[in-house]
Amino acid sequence: MAMKRVTIEFNSVFREVNHCRRRYRVLKGSAGSGKSVNIAQDYVLKLMDPRYKGANLLVVRKVEGSNKDSTYAELLGAISRTCGDKADLIWDTTTNPLQMTCRITGSRVIFRGMNDARQREKVKSITFPTGKLTWIWIEEATELEESDVDILDDRLRGLLDNPNLYYQITFTFNPVSASHWIKRKYFDITSPDIFTHHSTYLDNRFIDEAYHRRMELRQVQDPDGYRVYGLGEWGETGGLILTHYLVEEFCRDQGRFDFMVHSQDFGFNHANAILTVGFKDGELYICDEIYVYEHDTTEIIEIAQKKGLSKSLRMWCDSAEPDRIKMWHKAGYKAMAVKKEPGSVRAQIDYLKGLKIHIHPDCRWTLKEIQAWRWRKDGRTGLYTDEPVEFFDDAMAALRYSVEDLRRRRGKGKPRSGGSRIAPGLFG
Length: 428
Ligand SMILES: Nc1ncnc2c1ncn2[C@@H]1O[C@H](COP(=O)(O)OP(=O)(O)OP(=O)(O)O)[C@@H](O)[C@H]1O
Ligand SMILES: [Mg+2]
Prior knowledge:
- By secondary structure, the chain is an alpha/beta fold.
- It folds into 2 domains: 12-208, Rossmann fold, CATH 3.40.50.300; 245-408, 2-Layer Sandwich (Nucleotidyltransferase, domain 5), CATH 3.30.420.
- The protein has helices at residues 15-19, 35-48, 68-83, 87-90, 117-122, 146-155, 181-187, 209-221, 223-229, 297-307, 322-330, 344-353, 364-372, 394-408, and strands spanning 24-29, 57-61, 91-95, 98-102, 108-113, 135-139, 168-173, 194-199, 245-247, 259-265, 272-280, 283-292, 314-317, 334-337, 356-359, 375-377, 384-388.
- Helix 6 (146-155) links the parallel strand 6 (135-139) and strand 7 (168-173).
- The longest helix has 16 residues, at 68-83.
- It is globular, with a radius of gyration of 23 Å.
- It binds adenosine-5'-triphosphate and magnesium ion.
- Residues 35-36, 172 line the site of magnesium ion.
- Magnesium ion binds at residues 35-36, 172.
- Residues 265-405 form the Phage terminase large subunit C-terminal domain.
- This is Phage terminase large subunit.
C-alpha cells in the first residue's frame, strides 16, 4: 500500500531517543517540551513498520481512565498526521475497549492503569493476536510506584523470534521532585541498559508565543516551579501544600453527593479555572474542570454552556471581579462572590488539609497544579513561609473557594449548594 506521510515532523532534540534500543528509555523534561507527541509519533511509525513485526505496545498511566484524553488522543493524532485520509485503512482504533491495531503489521496498542491490585493483576495476563508485548510507554511516570514498574518490567521477557525486535520501557514525565525513586533508579547510576534524556519547551519548535511568555512570567514569580516545568530540572523535595489526595475514577452523579458546588477563579493571562466539586461524608470530590487561558468571559460562558455546566448549583467566584460575576449571573449561573478577609487563604488551606480529596482523572490541570502547589520559600533564610507561591494556582484558588462557605458555616447548618439567594449588595 502506498503511504503518503502527511505532516508528521519531529523535534531534533529527540533524534537519539527515537534510535535508542536500550531497555529503559527515560525522558524527563519541562512542561511542553514535546515528549508525549514525540513518543506517540515514534511508536506509531515503528508499529506500522514491517521490520518490527511482532511488536506490541502497552501504554500505562497510573489511572487507567486518564489514557483516553492523553495517550490515546496523542497516538490518534500521530496516526492521523502519519496516515492522513488513509488512517482508517491502516489502523483499526476503538474506544471500548481502548485499543489500536495496525492492519498492515497486526501490531496492537493497549492501555492500562496501575491504580489498584486488580489492575496490577490484569497486566500480568496480557496477550496479543500476533507477537508479544515488547514495548511499554509509561506516561507521567512519576505518578507510579516503583513496585508498579517492577511488575511491568517483569512482563518483558523471553526470546523474540524477530531479530529486529527488542524489549523497551519508555518513561515520560516532569521531574517533580529530586527525592523521587525514578531519579535514584535511572539517573543516579550509569548502566548500558539505561538511556536518560532531558528536554525543555525551548527545544520544542512547535510551541506558541503565548506559552513562552507564560514561562517567562513563571521564571520571575515561581522560580522553584520554573525549575521543574520550565527547565525540566529535578524539583524541590519539600514544601508541598496538599499531599493527601487520591486520583481515581468515581461516580459523578449529583445524587450521590450530600451537595455540589462550582467554584471559579477568573483569569486571562493566568488560567481561568472552574471546578465542579461534590461533598460526601466529609470528603471532597473534584469532579470536573474547565481550564482555559486567554478567553474572555463570554467565550468561557459558551464553553460552560456547551459542556452543560449545571445552572442549579451555587458558583463561588473570586470576589475581585464583580463585573464578571454579574455576567455569569446574567447567563443563568448562580454566581456569587467568596468573601475575602485577612488570613482566609491560610484558613481555607487548613480546612482543605482536613478533608480527604478525590480527584477525577479528567481534571488534568487540577492534578498538575496540586502536584506543584507549594509554600513560598524565604529567599534570605531558605525556609518555607506560610504563604503559597502565587503562580500556577488557579485551580487551587477555585478549590479554596469551593470550601469557603462550608468552612465558615462549620457547625452552623447546611451549606448553600443551590437556591437563588444572591450576595447582598452584589447585584443591586
Ligand atoms: N513533533 C511535533 N509536531 C507538532 N507539534 C508538536 C510536536 N511536538 C510538540 N508539539 C506541540 O507542542 C505541544 C507540547 O508537546 P507535548 O504535549 O508533547 O509536551 P510534553 O513534553 O509532553 O509536555 P508535558 O510535560 O506538559 O506533558 C503539543 O501539544 C503540540 O502542540
Ligand atoms: Mg506530556
